[in-house]
Amino acid sequence: GAGVVIVGAGQGGFQLAASLREAGFDGPVTLLGDEPGLPYQRPPLSKAYLKGDAGIEQIELRPAAFYTQHRIILAHGRASGIDRARRRLLLEGGASLPYEHLVLATGARNRPLPVPGHELGGLHALRTRADADALKSALAGTRHVVVIGAGFIGLEFAAVARALGHGVTVLEAASRPLARAVSPDMSAFFVEAHAAMGTRLLLGTGVVGLAGAGGRVTGVEATDGVVYPADVVVAGIGVTPNVELAAEAGLEIANGIVVDDHLATADPAISAIGDAVAYPSRFAGGRVRLESVQNAVDQARCLAARLVGRSAPFEAVPWFWSDQGDLKLQIVGLAGPTDSAVLRGDPASRRFSVFRFRDGVLTAIESVNRPADHMLGRRLLAGTPRITPAQAGDEGFELKSLLT
Ligand code: FAD
Question: Pocket around ligand 1: residues whose beta carbon is below 6 Å from it?
Answer without folding.
Answer: 7-13, 32-35, 42-43, 45-46, 78-79, 105-107, 126-127, 153, 242, 245, 274-276, 291-294, 296, 320-322
